[in-house]
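Chapter summary example.
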Amino acid sequence: MKTRSAAAMFAVVILAASFGVASAKVVGPESNLEREVGHRLRMLPYYSVFDILKYSVNGYQVTLDGAVTQPWLKSDAEKEVKSIEGVESVINNIKVLPPSPSDDRIRQAEYRAIFQGPLFRYAEQAVPPIHIIVENGHVTLEGAVDTPADKTIAEIKAKGVPGVFSVTDNLQVLAPAKH
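The structure predicted for these 179 residues follows.
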C-alpha cells in the first residue's frame, strides 16, 4: 500500500513538473511583444514548478531572469525569445541552480507539503501558479495565489519541511476580479 502511495505521489510530482508558468508580472497594459514572450516561456518543454522564469521588455530588448534546475532550460528560453519577431536583443540573467540530491529531496517534500490539503486546487491547474525554488536548502516561493490565506498556508507548509534552512515567500496575492 505504501509503495503504491509513494508511486502515485511520485507520478503526481513528475506530472506537475512537466507543466510550468512564466512570471507575467507586468504592470499596466501588455504589448503584443510582452504577451508573446510570456506565452513562449510558458510553453517551454521541461519548464516546471521547480523553475521560475521572469522577463521584462524594454522596447525591442528582452531581459530574462529567474532560476532553473536544468541548464538547457536557460538556453532554450533565450533561443525561443530570440526567435520572436521584433526582438532585437536578449539579456539572459537566468540562474542555473546547482545540482544537489538534498535540494531534490526538499523540492519533492515541499511539493507534497504545499499541494496537499487546501492548496491542491493550484496543483490541478494546467499551469501551476506556485513555484518552489530550492537552492542549498533555502526555499523561495514564487508566483501568485488567490487569497492572503492561501499565501499564509503555503508559507507555513513550506517552513514545516525538514531540512529547510529558510523560506522566502515572494507569492503575490491576485487582485479580485472587478465586476
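To summarize the output: The radius of gyration is 17 Å.
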